[in-house]
Design brief:
- By secondary structure, this protein is mostly helical.
- The protein has eleven helices and no strands.
- It starts with a helix and ends in a 7-residue tail after the last helix.
- The protein binds protoporphyrin IX containing FE.
- Residues 36, 39-40, 43-44, 46-47, 50, 83, 86-87, 90, 94, 112, 115-116, 118-119, 122, 155, 158-159, 162-163 line the site of protoporphyrin IX containing FE (HEM).
Length: 208
């Protein structure tokens, strides 16, 4: 299989943070509210992985290196895995396994509703990210997977509700997300491709 080592490297790097946070939780290294820290870290991890996944196509267009696309699906599934752990952490540590509290949050708290919508979107993408679904859905598959941009907006809104006053970090993710959305617009995407071709043909002409 092509890019085997690269794929394994990405797998290892993505699996380290949750294992490290679990280790910290087991040895009481996460402060007075370890449950909340775990939930926050996993939520942020899911958002960062979503942004990294979305960066793979522009990177491929710019560099023409197939390795970016080779790990795109894996990264998307990692994003989903982090989101599942984030949701489990919320049910376990914040709602204390009380189903009535989860249901109340889901009907009354807008940031939980928005997070849940983002999660359902990620679930739809994760279950259709296999070859069988690609073949079965045909053109609809592409349309369905464009949902990823709506999911990104929902995840950013969800985070904005959580951080509220502390906007600095949120702005960084929102700007990166905005830039990635912009790059998907066809005019920008073809400009990127042209820049990639120019750079490969004559790297010295383009000084960065
Ligand atoms: C049913 C689905 C979800 C629920 C119930 C949920 C719940 C929560 C809760 C309770 C918090 C922490 C609030 C606090 O610190 O007081 C949080 C924060 C966060 N969540 Fe979610 N979430 C969901 C889905 C998602 C998804 C799909 C993403 C990203 C793809 C996400 C990303 C985040 C981020 C980035 C934060 C802020 C972390 C920080 O403060 O550093 N969440 N979420």
């Amino acid at each position: 299989m092509r890019y085997r080592l690269w794929r394994i490297g990405v797998f290892l790097v993505a699996s380290v943070p949750p294992l490290y946070w679990l280790y910290c939780a087991a040895f009481n290294l996460l402060g007075p509210d370890p449950g909340k820290v775990l939930v926050d870290n996993l939520g942020l991890g899911a958002l960062i992985l979503l942004l990294i996944t979305l960066a793979m196509t522009p990177l491929q267009q710019l560099t023409r290196w197939g390795g970016w696309i080779a790990v795109r699906r894996q990264l998307g599934l990692w994003c989903f895995a982090y989101a599942v752990l984030h949701l489990l952490g919320y049910v376990l540590f914040i709602a204390g396994l009380r189903l009535e509290l989860v249901l109340r949050d889901l009907s009354e708290r807008p940031y939980i509703i928005v997070g849940a919508l983002a999660f359902v979107g990620l679930l739809a993408l994760a279950v259709t990210s296999n070859r069988f679904s690609i073949r079965k859905l045909g053109r609809k598959w592409k349309a369905l997977h464009r949902l990823v941009y709506a999911i990104l907006l929902l995840a950013l809104l969800h985070m904005l509700w959580v951080v509220r006053a502390d906007l600095g970090e949120w702005l960084v993710y929102a700007l990166i997300g905005g830039a990635l959305l912009l790059m998907r617009l066809s005019a920008v995407a073809s400009a990127l491709q042209r820049a990639g071709v120019l750079f490969r043909e004559n790297p010295k002409k383009i000084e960065i």
